[in-house]
Amino acid sequence: MRRQKQSRQLQREMEELLDEQNAWICLMDPDSFTLHYRNSAVARFAPDAQPGTVCYRALMGREEPCPGCPALEIREKKF
User: Fold this and answer.
1) pLDDT per residue over 28-77, tens digit each?
2) Coil, strand, or helix at residue 28?
3) 8 Å CB contact between 35 and 28
4) Cα 70-71-74 angle, rounded to 5 deg
5) What is the per-residue DSSP string for the chain?
6) Whole-model pTM over 0.85
């Protein structure tokens, strides 16, 4: 129980740190392009970019992955 509490606290602290950044920060699944996290800078620009949405649709209004998307390269190389 204590470890879970510490883990939640660490997660909140990490999110606060990332939200203070002016840069766009997203965490996504490179296989499905599903957003798992976006910081406040992304939320201000693209309020529809909620966790669970597909990044290319929510951020760019596209129906398929963006040309030159870094996730495509990650998928090919399988880091």
Assistant:
1) 998 899 999 999 999 999 999 999 999 999 999 999 999 989 888 887 77
2) strand
3) yes
4) 95
5) -HHHHHHHHHHHHHHHHHHT-SS--EEE-TTT-BEEEE-HHHHHH-TT--TTSBHHHHHH--SSPPTT-HHHHHHHHT-
6) no
